[in-house]
């Protein structure tokens, strides 16, 4: 038996798909939609391209499922952004992006959308609280927090080629 493997695939305009291959070679996927919904799909063992089950969950249902799978995950000290009307998204900066090599401040994301870039993931490094002088690079994943509308507007700005 092999160890479980998790991979992610950006789905432009939709969100991100996470694929899990279990130790017994079963494939599960979760699509994290930009609107907060999640779609969980399970695939047949004899045909990994054939979907046996697909369930779309609201944000609240997905949170409840997480609590059922990992009861230690939820603590009262954690900030629940959805309860406050905020969302957190990972937005990948394509190599062909207009912002590749430019300063974060030039994008005017916070000024124009109200959303904040709270961290940048670059290769195996996490850069918390990047300043406006931070230079963006293709392949960066920006962690953006704001209202749903603000985060979607930030994604549109970052997707500019």
Describe this entry's structure for a reader.
17% of the residues lie in helices and 35% in strands. The protein is an alpha+beta fold and 161 residues long. The strands form two sheets. A five-stranded antiparallel sheet has the order 1-2-3-4-5. A hairpin with a 5-residue loop joins strand 2 and strand 3. The longest helix has 11 residues.
List the main descriptive attributes of the protein structure presented here:
five-stranded antiparallel sheet; four-stranded antiparallel sheet; 9 strands; single chain; alpha+beta; globular; 161 residues
Summarize the structure.
By secondary structure, this protein is of the alpha+beta class.
Nearest-integer average pLDDT: 85
Q: What is the succession of H and E elements?
A: EEEEEHEHEEEH
Give the total of beta strands.
Answer: 9
SSE-based structural type: alpha+beta
Helical amount among residues, as a percent range? 10-25%
Question: What topology does this entry show?
Answer:
Blueprint: E1 5-11, E2 15-21, E3 27-33, E4 38-43, E5 51-57, H1 59-69, E6 87-92, H2 109-113, E7 116-122, E8 125-128, E9 141-146, H3 148-158
Antiparallel strand pairs: 1-2, 2-3, 3-4, 4-5, 6-9, 7-8, 7-9
């Amino acid at each position: 038996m092999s160890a479980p493997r998790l991979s992610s695939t950006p789905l432009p305009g939709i969100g991100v798909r996470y694929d899990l291959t279990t130790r017994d070679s079963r494939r599960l996927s979760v699509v994290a939609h930009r609107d907060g919904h999640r779609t969980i799909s399970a695939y047949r063992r004899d045909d990994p391209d054939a979907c046996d089950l697909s369930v779309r969950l609201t944000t609240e249902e997905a949170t409840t499922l997480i609590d059922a799978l990992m009861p230690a995950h939820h603590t009262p000290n954690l900030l629940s952004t959805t309860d406050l009307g905020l969302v957190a998204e990972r937005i990948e900066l394509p190599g062909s992006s207009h912002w590749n090599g430019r300063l974060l401040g030039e994008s005017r994301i916070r000024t124009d959308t109200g959303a904040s870039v709270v961290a940048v993931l670059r290769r195996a490094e996490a850069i918390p609280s990047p300043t406006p002088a931070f230079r963006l690079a293709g392949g960066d994943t920006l962690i953006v927090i704001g209202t749903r509308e603000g985060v979607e507007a930030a994604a549109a700005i970052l997707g500019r080629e």
